[in-house]
Structure to design on (694 residues):
């Protein structure tokens, strides 16, 4: 029994507690824990499960699995994150089952009053994390398994365009040029497996890409960072240097009785590096030298690292494959769930080394708890259906509450083809995911923002522009995630667990602490009902204030979506640019949302790349707002040594209940001509300490 020492509230209670269960297949090796489900208890977490946010009444398996065109309720899929949060009687706790074997969680499914978890091997090692606030549970779990090692380069938070595959070079350039021509912001272009020679990693198809270094540079000159895919399977080919080195060094995985683990992937028969071996990780990292240092590739996309094997029923290695596991040799039963993570980790250290002094950018498909330290991720091969738009929304929220915020889906759907309406609605959601990339299998047609007619192109552009405007806000949220483990996306239950109305909501979420987002996930919608959390919110589009704690109808035709800002927020916005660094801004906007009372906001900035920020070269501004019926005071505190490039803030006041007739800035009275009464804006020096509107 676990009680809160403060007031003896029961937090968590064992049923049988730790016990063994015999299994015909696995002998007595199942370690099991069972807990009493408390009255009204809800459960959240577990990574990428494509089901309702509240896991109550369901049973799950954690076994990292390649899941092409998975659907709602498919289980397991790509990620294994054996961590959940329980919530009952307004208090919350978390359990991280630190066991990499195939594991199972049963949330009052088999037996109504029992929640249990078990694994097919290993030990019963679990961490109990008490809140009572869910946000603290998630932050502590993130801290335990690892916050991101550093900030992503800012461009990685821009919009990315991908397809399987853009080739030859001419096609790549056509796509990137079109972005610039149509003025749709974009920072990254992806090369899928066809850039390689016969799908051999670390090679180039010299017919389609005769001079990769030149191409990468030309793309870069136009603001496009090139990201390339690298899979784990190494083709059996005696003339292929990576294969030869791997063999010579004895770095490939082997079966229990000695032969190499051979499996079919894109290049045909392959061997697979044992990424659980530190020497192999080092070697793997070194393979990136040419790609990154010489050719200038800026990001690497690790795919098929579950590891996926084609044409075998279990889609992966057999259980008997041996792994080094950092010197504690084991079978695949133990190493499977962390194989992809170790690959991403090795890739990350290669990029970190060769991209220096710039920051690395990695994206992975497979993940285990803690993978957020090294890489971003996407939710795998989804489909272009409305149901998948719903899935993308819950998956991103669930990943964020599982410690992994740098996540997004294949916008528009990977398999099948979206119509314009679905694509537009998906972009509207996708621009609020920390990782924002359109990707498609390309079998069913084109999926660039301009493929669905002018109306959709314009809508897509305006939402990608909004993402670029909000980049300082997202970057600040990432800074908090990095330092405090605060998830960038918060499901309503994570935002306000005391309000039981939030316990079964799935669609609405809070983006970066102050913006309420609710995607439209049904066709032919003119709007929708949303649950507005308690407090006062302002409609982002109209500035109209709405009282929360209830469901409201929000108009949202195809060119709009429900978007609200919490009262008292100070939201920073950049001017629109086509890619990060395209423009040097003289000023940035601060949207100040009036509140009667106090509120705090922050704004983080640095060089947007590199590591100087770790040595104090950052700028963190906190804004303390204090609103009264006829005045508004905004105080600013600054930390860090970085001098931001912009000089001024264009401050825009929203929802002010009085007419401004006097403005004091650091005790000096400003000329009222500098304040535009119609737009409620004023341009001020960025270094004010206090500004007072009366
Ligand atoms: C896998 C990936 C997908 C990629 C394809 C080809 O299906 O999930 O994103 O495009 O392989 O590399």
């Amino acid at each position: 029994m676990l009680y809160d020492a403060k007031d003896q509230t029961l937090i968590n209670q064992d049923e049988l507690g730790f016990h063994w269960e015999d299994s015909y297949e696995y002998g007595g090796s199942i370690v099991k824990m069972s807990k009493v489900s408390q009255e009204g208890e809800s459960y959240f977490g577990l990574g990428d499960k494509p089901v309702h946010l509240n896991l109550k009444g369901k049973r799950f398996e954690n076994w990292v699995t390649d899941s092409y065109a998975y659907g709602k309720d498919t289980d397991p899929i790509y990620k294994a994150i054996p961590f959940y949060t329980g919530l009952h009687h307004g208090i919350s706790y978390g359990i991280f089952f630190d066991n990499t074997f195939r594991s199972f969680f049963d949330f009052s499914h088999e037996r109504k009053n029992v929640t249990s978890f078990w694994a097919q091997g290993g030990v019963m090692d679990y961490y109990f994390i008490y809140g009572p606030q869910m946000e603290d549970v998630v932050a502590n779990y993130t801290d335990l398994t690892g916050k991101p090692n550093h900030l992503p380069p800012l461009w990685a938070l821009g919009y990315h365009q991908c397809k399987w595959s853009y080739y030859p070079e001419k096609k790549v350039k056509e796509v990137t040029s079109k972005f610039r021509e149509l003025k749709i912001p974009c920072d990254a272009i992806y090369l899928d497996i066809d850039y390689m020679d016969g799908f051999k990693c670390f090679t180039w198809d010299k017919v389609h890409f005769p001079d990769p270094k030149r191409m990468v540079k030309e793309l870069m000159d136009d603001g496009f960072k090139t990201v390339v895919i690298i899979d784990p399977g190494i083709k059996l080919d005696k003339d292929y240097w990576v294969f030869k080195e791997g063999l010579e060094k004895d770095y490939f995985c082997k079966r229990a009785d000695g032969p190499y683990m051979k499996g079919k992937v894109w290049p045909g028969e392959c061997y697979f590096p044992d990424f659980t071996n530190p020497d192999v990780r080092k070697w793997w990292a070194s393979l990136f030298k040419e790609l990154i240092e010489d050719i200038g590739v800026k990001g690497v996309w690790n795919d098929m690292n579950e590891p996926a094997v084609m044409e075998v029923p279990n889609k992966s290695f057999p259980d008997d494959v041996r792994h080094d596991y950092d010197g504690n040799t084991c079978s695949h039963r133990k190493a499977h769930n962390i194989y992809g993570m170790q690959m991403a980790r090795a890739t990350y250290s290669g990029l970190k080394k060769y991209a220096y002094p710039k920051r690395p950018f990695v994206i992975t498909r497979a993940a285990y708890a803690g993978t957020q330290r090294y890489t971003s991720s996407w939710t795998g091969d989804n489909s272009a259906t409305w149901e998948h738009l719903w899935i993308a929304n819950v998956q991103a929220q669930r990943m964020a509450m599982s410690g992994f915020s740098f996540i997004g889906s294949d916008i528009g759907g990977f398999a099948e083809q979206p119509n314009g309406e679905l694509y537009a609605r998906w972009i509207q959601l996708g621009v609020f995911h920390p990782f924002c990339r359109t990707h498609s299998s390309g079998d069913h047609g084109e999926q660039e923002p301009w493929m669905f007619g002018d109306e959709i192109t314009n809508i897509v552009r305006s939402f990608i522009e909004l993402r670029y405007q909000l980049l300082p806000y997202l970057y600040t949220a990432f800074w908090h995630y990095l330092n405090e483990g605060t998830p960038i996306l918060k499901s309503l239950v994570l935002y306000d667990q005391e309000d039981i109305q939030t316990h079964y909501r799935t669609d609405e979420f809070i983006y970066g602490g102050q913006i309420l987002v609710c995607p439209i996930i049904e066709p032919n919608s003119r709007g929708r009902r949303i649950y507005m959390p308690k407090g006062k919110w302002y409609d982002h589009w109209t500035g109209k204030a709405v009282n929360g704690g209830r469901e409201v109808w929000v108009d949202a035709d195809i060119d709009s979506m429900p978007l609200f800002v919490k009262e008292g927020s100070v939201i920073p916005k950049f001017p629109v640019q086509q890619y990060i660094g395209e423009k040097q801004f003289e000023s940035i906007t601060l949207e100040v949302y009036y509140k009667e009372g106090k509120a705090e906001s922050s704004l983080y900035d640095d060089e947007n790349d590199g590591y100087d920020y770790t040595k104090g070269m950052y700028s963190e501004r906190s804004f303390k707002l204090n609103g009264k019926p006829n005045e508004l005071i905004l105080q600013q505190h600054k930390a860090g040594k970085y001098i931001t490039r912009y000089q001024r803030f264009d401050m825009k006041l929203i929802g002010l209940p009085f007419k401004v007739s006097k403005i004091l800035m650091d005790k000096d009275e400003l000329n009222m001509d500098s304040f535009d009464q119609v737009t409620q804006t004023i341009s001020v020096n960025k270094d004010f300490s206090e500004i007072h509107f009366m």
